[in-house]
Amino acid sequence: MKFLSDENIPTSLVKELRISGFDVKDIKEQKLFGMSDKNVLELAKSEDRIVLTYDKDFLNLTNQTPFGHKGIIILRFSNQAPKNVIERFLTILNSEHSAKFGKSLVIISDNSIEIIKQSIF
Predict the structure, then answer these.
(1) pTM for the model
(2) Is there a contact between 109 and 89 (Cβ–Cβ < 8 Å)?
(3) Closest by CA position to 25, among listed 56, 50, 55, 58
């Protein structure tokens, strides 16, 4: 699974994902600050990556823009301390749920994983 981490994702989560064997491109490391959400989706699609973000504005973008994506994961934990997010997200990635994340809009919160199929591209 390959990710493109939005600029709001903590560097510590990016590092832990890499340690766990995931291919992660970080917007911050690439110095792509201020990139529009649409451009983030386009970059992720061109590189076959799933967008990882805290930004729920991606929900509106996928509803308004009829272009495909490789997947979007929106993390909505009430405790967004990096240690908590790392622990919870890695547990989910190592579960059977992660097989359904590609080409889907996924909202992960404290008590649920909502998987919404959105893209056929």
Answers:
(1) 0.89
(2) no
(3) 50
